[in-house]
Hints:
This protein is α/β, with parallel strands linked by helices. The protein is built from 12 helices and 8 strands. Helix 5 (68-80) links the parallel strand 3 (57-64) and strand 4.
Amino acid sequence: MDLTRRVIVALDFDTAEEASAVVERLGDACQSYKIGLQLLTAAGPALATTLAEAGKDVFLDLKLFEIPTSVAAAVRAAGRRGATMVTVHATAGSRILAAAVGAAADFPRLRVVALTVVTSLTAADLAEVGVVASTEEQVTRLAQLARSAGCHGVVAAPHDAAPLRRLLGTDQLIVTPGVTLPAPDPAGTDHARPAHPVDAFRAGASHVVIGRALTRAADPRAVLAAIAEELRVSSDGTRPADQGPDTPGR
Length: 250
């Protein structure tokens, strides 16, 4: 499995300079990066273009939830920046999801992944906003909706990866934030349903997203190497590369 593209490093920084320093340190050990709301708001989208032009996979985690026309315009803007993934909230509904997929069609490497249930949310949080389903039921419902709308995959917690892989088959992306590492995240975690990246891959995730626990580590390359080694010696011989698609377009 090509971990350099399936482990997505989250560039959760306040400046492009800090983010670029991590990219430089990782070098060819990482080929996939996530740019989310923090860095986009602080530094704008220029780094996304820079990374794409350097041959990196760029996951623009926009979490879009707007009227269809606005969502389609944002997806096209992401495509022009060279993004390979962009997120849309599945709770936005099928019309908005389909608008995103239609806009992405103009960019052969761009994939629309639908965010199911944010990894910080619990059943109590869902109930607070009127959702009576459990997190598992809601994830399943939204994943089915996303697939029907033509999305290329979903974003979900690691513990959801196994049932989602059974539900969605082998052709859909399953992107899992909320993974944990033995070394603690210095900023703590907001994720309610975390798991180790190896467990996420073995469960059927196509990609995992790792943030501060890696980017703030003393040796980020060593962290990636340790994950690769743990996968290699996985006791049951499971090959995560067989449990889902690689990044399309590669």
